[in-house]
Specification:
alpha/beta, four-stranded antiparallel sheet, three-stranded parallel sheet
Length: 359
């Protein structure tokens, strides 16, 4: 079990807990019963071996959960600690542990997990992620003769390096006083083994190394390569803000690729883009606030209309705390002017969003 690519056992901290819960604990009697805990549940449709009633809703359904809680085996140590400290002003996370179970009450491990996931977050992926695998796949489609010719020519090019006069001159001056060693010291290119050529090749775009192309180009290529190479074996795919660094046309093409490639798979996409939301279907929107809300009961004709209006700022309307709808830009300007005269500030300063109705 990992949190941000690190084992969760080493990542438990007070910052993971709700601030109000921590405050309530610190103002309490600090008893074991008042210690907060974290419970994350995932309710699934399958597989059946995860089915059980070991969940907060007591429903007989497939699923799994992660729980971070006080370790009861450390009860004596915690009570002794309370007596020894003058004032406890932080959550005692050193006495916490975690568990990872299915709803069938089967303990899960990285080796026994029934569900595979793929997390695609391009800013945190190295520019060569997927590129080496892609090169390997391309080379695997070549015939034996083509691969042999490619490898032979590659090694011949590397061999020419040693024969260059300028390289010979550098090597002559490396240790001409024999201070480092009494043997001949020189720089040379390692001879790659028969199958070692692939590691020395790189992906280029229009003759520019992939690591040097623009962030937008890297972003969409990394997403596509990750989905192409990894998504097939993943039960759940998570994609972090696919709109980053992309122009409108590139975003259109990327979202279409995600729709086509991920058809029939469970995909979670985080986004600040109304275009992404509208194209991937508005009724699938999930809001994580004080409560979990999914807009699944939206009228089908409304959803269809919004998918045809990718420029409509749906997400802005949904996420606004207070909204005033007006008929056009002129009404928006007039309303803002009236608000400034009356309150001395723009409506946005009071978290009021003024939006034009779509034509």
């Amino acid at each position: 079990m990992q949190y941000r690519r690190r084992p969760i056992a080493g990542c438990i901290s007070q910052d993971l807990f709700n601030n109000d819960q921590v405050t309530d604990f610190l103002s309490s009697d600090k008893s074991i019963e008042s210690l907060p805990e974290i419970l994350i549940e995932a309710y699934l449709d399958e597989p059946s071996e995860l089915k059980g009633k070991n969940n907060s809703l007591k429903e007989n359904v497939p699923g799994l959960f992660v729980r971070i809680f006080f370790n009861p085996e450390l009860e004596k140590s915690y009570l002794e600690y309370l007596i020894s400290v003058e004032k406890l002003d932080m959550l005692p996370i050193d006495f916490y542990t975690f568990e990872w179970y299915s709803f069938a009450w089967d303990r899960l491990t990285p080796y026994s997990k029934k569900i595979n996931s793929l997390f695609v977050d391009p800013p945190n992926l190295h520019p060569t992620f997927g590129a080496k695998k892609y090169i390997d796949d391309v080379l695997s489609t070549l015939s034996d003769d083509e691969r042999a010719t490619l490898r032979l020519n590659f090694r011949q090019l590397k061999g020419k390096f040693d024969a260059e006069e300028s390289v010979k001159q550098v090597n002559q001056n490396l240790d001409n006083t024999d201070e480092v060693t009494d043997k001949t010291l020189q720089i040379s290119v390692a001879n790659a083994p028969q199958g070692g050529v692939e590691g020395n090749l790189q992906l280029s775009m229009n003759q520019i190394p992939f690591s040097n192309v623009g962030k937008g180009e890297q972003h969409q290529v990394l997403i596509k390569l990750a989905l192409r190479e990894k998504a097939e074996n993943a039960d759940v795919v998570l994609i972090e803000e696919p709109e980053n660094h992309l122009s409108h046309i590139n975003l259109v093409n990327l979202i279409q690729y995600i729709e086509d490639k991920m058809s029939g798979q469970q995909v979670f996409v985080t986004t600040h883009s109304s275009y992404v939301l509208n194209k991937l279907s508005f009724e699938n929107l999930c809001l994580m606030t004080e409560n979990y809300i999914r807009l699944k009961d939206i009228d089908k004709h409304t959803v269809k209309t919004l998918k045809r209006l990718p420029g409509y700022d749906t997400l802005r309307a949904v996420l606004s705390q207070k909204v005033i709808l007006v008929e056009g830009p002129s009404d928006e300007l007039l309303l803002k002017k009236i608000y400034i005269k009356k309150n001395g500030k723009l409506p946005e300063a009071d978290k009021i969003d003024i939006m034009d109705l779509p034509v």
